[in-house]
Amino acid sequence: MYAILKNLILMKDTSKEVLEEKIWTTWASGRLTNEEKDELLQLVFENLNPESEAPEILELYQRLEKKVNDLTARVEKLEGGSSKTNPEPPATTVPAWEAWDGISDNYQYGAAVTHSDRYWLNVLQGTQNVWEPGVADERYWKEISKEDAEAIISGAKTVDQVLNPTTEVDQEG
Fold this sequence. Notes:
The protein is mainly alpha-helical and about 170 residues long.
């Protein structure tokens, strides 16, 4: 029985679990010595064949590898087709104002929004602004330009820079 099991292991067509079960069963029935059992178990470990262990995992790996290669090729094609010279930065989108839902804290001091085709800056400090822009007075929302709203959202300008613009003095003269 030892020779049969050894040949079965060396063929590498049977899974580890099946081989180990056969070895232990044969040993338990008294047809293998302790030394033969230990040697066969070591041989199983040394001759593991990943394809016989879980062929579905190998197939899955191969499909995933193909998908990764396809996606990599597509990304390289897309990146290769674009010009590498200073691409334009993505456009800044000013979010539309939405009525307060009672939970969010979207409209803290400095929030810029668009509402009724105009741009607004939240100037209410220290609390959530629940007022609709353009309805209440300028203690809550101040109308600003689209450029200033986009600059605040992109981080190009601070709220203070928009609220208190410095006037540049003409140095010629």
